[in-house]
Amino acid sequence: MDRLFLDAKVLFSAAYRPDAGLRRLWGIAGVQLITSTYAEEEARRNLETPVQHATLDELLRHVKILSFQSGFSLLPTGLELPDNDRPILEAAIFSQATHLLSGDMKAFGAYYGRALAGVLILPPAAYLRFLLDKPNV
């Protein structure tokens, strides 16, 4: 079973636009959606309307929310990430996610398609394309 860690940009985008294609993530059978309180709070801060906040609340009902405070770094040495994005990858590693789905090209783009500490980093669209190309077993 894939365990998909969703970053703040994914949560924000899903709540911001009712027609966001990445909402398909919530309809995939056999996957577990995971995020952190850190990502949830960041997404919530950036939403503008009560409807968007209510939509985020509804989406999060189907997501395992991890409360994670790092006392030590779980990140591989030599990793270059902005300080505010490090907790996202650390929480994904801590949660034993198989994938980190991030819409943050600036922070994670250099790592798209790479596994760091066992977590494959992808933009959501790449994961969805992978599922479409995957033969039914």
Spatial order of strands in the largest sheet: 3-2-1-4-6-5
Using the CA coordinates, give the radius of gyration: 14 Å
Q: What is the percent of helical residues?
A: 25-40%
How far the N terminus sits from the C terminus, by CA atoms, comes to 13 Å
- Work out the helix count: 6
The total number of structural domains is: 1
CATH class division: Alpha Beta
Examine the secondary-structure arrangement and name the CATH architecture.
3-Layer(aba) Sandwich
What is the assigned CATH homologous superfamily?
5'-nuclease
CATH topology call: Rossmann fold
What is the overall pLDDT average?
Answer: 92
Tell me the overall shape: globular
The description of the largest β-sheet is: 6 strands, mixed
The computed structural class is alpha/beta
Total number of beta strands: 6
Fraction of residues in β-strands: 15-25%
Transmembrane segments: 111-132
Keywords: Membrane, Transmembrane, Transmembrane helix
Organism: Candidatus Methylomirabilis lanthanidiphila
Protein name: PIN domain-containing protein
